[in-house]
Specification:
Helix content is 84%, strand content 0%. The chain starts with a helix and ends with a helix.
Length: 146
């Protein structure tokens, strides 16, 4: 009888662990699907739940930042991009989005610093860096003339 109880408890713990592991990814996957469907409030809720279960999930922070960008909430966008880069320092999307914010805020030194970092890690978005640097070059003289 005691053996049966022990086996039942072990089985219950294993199933509970597997269910929790599955739910972590399920929150992110479902949140990503809702993001792609432009259901931002629902996506935000699921991505935040994903972070609760796995605080080191960089993609959850990245997609939260993308939602905040759509909502024109630059403060939270930037906060989530910074969190993304703390977890995954070579995340091209996050670096690129922070560079765009830097240009908007006319924080040229930060854009140049991020551009150097981006050049070291870029694999798929390398052409975007050239565009950002061109925008930066076009804006700097205007800033110096004022």
């Amino acid at each position: 009888m005691i053996k049966l109880i022990k086996i039942s408890i072990i089985t219950f713990l294993i199933l509970g662990f597997l269910n929790t592991s599955y739910s972590k990814e399920n929150f992110f996957d479902e949140g990503l699907r809702l993001f792609q469907e432009k259901k931002y409030e629902d996506a935000k809720f699921l991505l935040e739940r994903s972070i609760v279960f796995n605080p080191k999930h960089a993609k959850s922070y990245l997609y939260l930042a993308k939602i905040y960008k759509e909502e024109k909430d630059q403060k939270n966008e930037e906060k989530n991009l910074e969190a993304t880069l703390l977890i995954d320092p070579s995340n091209e999307d996050a670096i690129l989005m922070l560079m765009e914010i830097g240009i908007e805020k006319t924080n040229y030194s930060k854009v140049k610093e991020l551009s150097e970092r981006f050049t070291k890690v870029c694999k798929k978005l390398c052409n975007e860096n050239k565009k950002i640097l061109k925008d930066l070059k076009n804006l700097e003289p205007k800033n110096n003339e004022s």
